[in-house]
Amino acid sequence: MNYLGLDDLIKRSLEEDIGYGDITTLSVVPAEQISEGLFIAKAAGVIAGLEVARAVFRQLDPEIIFIGLIKDGDAVQSGETIAKVRGRSRALLTGERTALNFLQRLSGIASQTRQWVEIIKDSQASLLDTRKTTPGLRVLEKYAVAVGGARNHRFGLYDGVMIKDNHIIAAGGIQRAVAMARARVPHTLKIEVEVENLDQLQVALTAKADIIMLDNMDPATMKAAVAIVKGRALLEASGGIKAANLLEVAQTGVDFISMGALTHSAFSLDISFDIL
Predict the structure, then answer these.
(1) Tens digits of per-residue pLDDT, 211-268?
(2) DSSP state of 268
(3) Please, what CATH class does the domain formed by 6-117+267-275 belong to?
(4) Which of 132, 151, 208, 223 is catalytic?
(5) Given this structure, which CATH class describes domain 120-264?
(6) Among the options 61, 215, 248, 270, which is catalytic?
């Protein structure tokens, strides 16, 4: 993981939890005491975020030794030890919840993503995330999606042109919106347009959109869209897609399927931290 903002994010997260000091640990644990702790999976899943957990402890005490027994992307079973950490007991106890919060959240996203990627592995469609992420955690959550085997959509408003319904209304139509975008953005950026029906699809094709998002269409309409486009643009299905209908959507022939649920509805993988 290469995230320049990680140290600052961890600093703010620790400050939120520690405040003026960990009064329990400072009261009952001697300053010189050394301990070893284990991160143990309490459920089966895919691990993501070990480097983040390591960074939490190292920020509290640079001398702490953190050893990952597996690597991000590895599948684990319930009861399996993920990592061990050794150092001053106070730092281990003070940092455990923050480290677990990151590790459980990212591992939950990676685990759910892996499950859904498996559902469509025999289709041509690629699974994508969205910008429906926890504020401040987008880079980490999208990292977890990638660890789980899906692909990242745009990271923000700055790295991709996506003309959605409100842009179309504000700009005065699909043709005008695509033309204005084409005249203003670098030639290296693809232009994506959201459409809600086959009539809008035809307009987006005429405007030469690079990617067309099929918003909240049923599988039958998606199949019709694939037949109309015939490879002249990439097609992305989005809206109302869940694990239950994911395979049916993938079998329509679309190129991409974007799911906000990869991040906004992910569970946290159950992981414990036990001091020996």
Answers:
(1) 999 999 999 999 999 999 999 999 999 999 999 999 999 999 999 999 999 999 999 9
(2) P
(3) alpha beta
(4) 132
(5) alpha beta
(6) 215
